[in-house]
Specification:
This is Adenylate kinase. Keywords: Kinase, Transferase. It is an enzyme of class 2 (transferase). Its EC number is 2.7.4.3. The chain is an alpha/beta fold. The chain has a single domain, classed as 3-Layer(aba) Sandwich (Rossmann fold), CATH 3.40.50.300. Helix content is 49%, strand content 15%. It contains 9 helices and 8 strands. A 5-stranded parallel sheet has the order 2-3-1-4-8, sandwiched between helices. Helix 2 packs across helix 3 and helix 6 crosses helix 7. The longest helix is centred in the C-terminal third of the chain and has 17 residues.
Length: 219
């Protein structure tokens, strides 16, 4: 299957993408991974992206699109892929359509992970990270440390990242609503959108997504 995964920040896209890609035996292609791989490998596209990032500017659509095109041309993506973070806006969605059309293939589904805005804020603003090891992550409501402000694993201080503050999260949501959310209507007009609730346990969300995709395949 060829799938685009969309949803607001805090919807659990990265987690669900990994599970779904594994269950469907297709590669998980994320924008962040594309940037990191191209930059670390020193590709021409990576150098271009880095120059914009170092200047504090957004990487232009054409660079992101070219990276995605290169990745989707790899042998492991021949039978399908799951795109996470791309397309990010309608112009990228149109470019993706043209790209796939030139290869004689189409998308099978656009999976929309739906989460209420207040829940997004609660999920992200409640995160606390260990200063000693950023892989030690807690949540004030869902997975609190035994002692407030102290990492259970190493005893390090827990803190809230600047980009996890409620004010920043709401700004990120504004950007999502303005730039990315319009692609849902774009794809809905093509009959590709499958919306599922991203509330509840990770495994429950994955089960809902798999059932929705299987139903779509049978239709």
């Amino acid at each position: 299957m060829r799938i685009v995964l969309v949803g607001p920040p805090g919807a659990g896209k990265g987690t669900q993408a990994a599970y779904l890609a594994n269950n469907l035996s297709i590669p998980h292609i994320s924008t962040g991974d594309l940037f990191r791989a191209n930059i670390s490998q020193g590709t021409e596209l990576g150098r271009k992206a880095k120059s914009y990032m170092d200047a504090g500017e957004l990487v232009p659509d054409e660079v992101t699109i070219a990276m995605a095109k290169d990745r989707m041309a790899q042998p492991d993506a021949r039978n399908g892929f799951l795109l996470d973070g791309f397309p990010r806006n309608v112009s990228q969605a149109e470019a993706l359509d043209e790209m796939l059309k030139s290869e004689g293939i189409t998308l099978d589904a656009v999976l929309d992970l739906e989460v209420p805005e207040d829940e997004v804020v609660r999920r992200i603003a409640g995160r606390r990270i260990c200063r000693n090891d950023s892989s030690h992550v807690f949540h004030v409501s869902y997975s609190p440390p035994k002692q407030e402000g102290v990492c259970d694993t190493c005893g390090g201080d827990l803190y809230q990242r600047d980009d996890d503050s409620e004010e920043t999260v709401r700004k990120r949501l504004e950007v999502y609503h303005t730039q990315t959310e319009p692609i849902i209507d774009y794809y809905r007009n093509q009959g590709l959108v499958v919306t599922i609730s991203a509330l509840g346990k990770v495994t429950d969300v994955t089960k809902r997504a798999m059932e929705a995709l299987e139903k779509l395949q049978k239709a």
